[in-house]
């Protein structure tokens, strides 16, 4: 999955810096070229990877990404730290749920939000990154 998403990002003329995921979410850290709008890039990633999952029958039922996404920008000097953070998702999520992590990011970036518009979180579902890569 991570390799496939990397290909989609590269096809959109962006540079993959780090990608990793858990059973309920993905972190995709890219060097962004503003030749494509972020919503269009996310849509392309979701459509292409969702089709790939379904075409290869990687789940017992039809796969669909949830609506929405979060996009945050970081300083160049933080790239190594963010890459380590993304690669350490399995350990990280033993300490904090995705829901709490996402809300913390919204607060850190001073983004106002309403609970009713947040993702549907699945805090009890976790797979290791190795399980996600097994299919790629």
Characterization of the model:
The protein has six helices and two strands, in the order H-E-E-H-H-H-H-H. The protein has one domain (2-133): Alpha-Beta Plaits (2-Layer Sandwich), CATH 3.30.70. Strand 1 (15-22) and strand 2 form a beta hairpin. Helix content is 42%, strand content 11%. The termini are close together. With 136 residues, the chain is of the alpha+beta class.
Quick take:
With 136 residues, this protein is of the alpha+beta class.
Give average pLDDT, whole number.
Answer: 84
Could you state the order of secondary-structure elements as H and E? HEEHHHHH
Assigned CATH architecture: 2-Layer Sandwich
* Contiguous uncertain segments of 5+ residues: 125-136
- SS strand fraction: 5-15%
Q: Quaternary state, please?
A: single chain
Number of helices: 6
Radius of gyration: 15 Å
CATH top level assignment: Alpha Beta
Report the end-to-end length measured between terminal Cα atoms. 5 Å
Alpha-beta classification: alpha+beta
CATH fold-level label: Alpha-Beta Plaits
**Largest sheet geometry:** 2 strands, antiparallel
Would you count the extended β strands for me? 2
Spatial sequence of strands, sheet with the most strands? 1-2
**Could you say how many structural domains there are in total?**
1
Per the principal axes of the C-alpha atoms, what is the gross shape? globular
The percentage helix is 40-55%
């Amino acid at each position: 999955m991570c390799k496939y998403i990397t290909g989609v990002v590269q096809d959109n003329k962006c540079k993959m810096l780090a990608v990793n995921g858990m059973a309920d979410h993905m972190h995709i850290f890219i060097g962004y070229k503003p030749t494509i709008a972020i919503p269009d890039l996310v849509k392309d990633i979701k459509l292409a990877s969702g089709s790939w999952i379904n075409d290869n029958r990687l789940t017992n039922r039809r796969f669909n990404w949830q609506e929405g996404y979060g996009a945050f920008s970081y300083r160049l000097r933080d790239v190594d730290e963010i890459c380590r953070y993304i690669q350490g998702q399995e350990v990280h999520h033993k300490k904090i749920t995705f829901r709490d992590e996402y809300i913390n990011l919204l607060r850190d970036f001073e983004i106002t939000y309403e609970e009713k518009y947040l993702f549907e979180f699945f805090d009890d579902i976790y797979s290791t990154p190795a399980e996600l890569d097994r299919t790629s």
